[in-house]
Automatic annotation (TrEMBL):
It comes from the Eukaryota. Pfam families: Retrotrans_gag. The lineage of its organism: Eukaryota, Viridiplantae, Streptophyta, Embryophyta, Tracheophyta. This is Retrotransposon gag domain-containing protein. It comes from Trifolium medium. Residues 1-67 form the Retrotransposon gag domain.
Amino acid sequence: HWWKNARQRLGAGGVAITWEIKREFWVKYFPVDVRNRKVVEFLELKQRNMTVAEYATKFEALSAFSPFYNTPEAEYD
C-alpha cells in the first residue's frame, strides 16, 4: 500500500530509490527500537566462532543500520 502511493507520487519515469525514500520507508515500517537494537548489535559484533565469510556477511547486513557507518562521508574514512 505504502509503496503504491509512493510510486504514484514519483511518477512512472523509473525513478531510482533515494535515501529520502528509504528514510521514509524506515520511519513508517521499521520501529526505532528495532533499529536501535540493530545498531547495538552492529557495534557489539564479534567474530567469535564464525568464519571470516560468516562474519563479513553479518557485518555487511548490520552495517546498514549504523547511522555512523552508513553515510556518504564514511566512504572516505
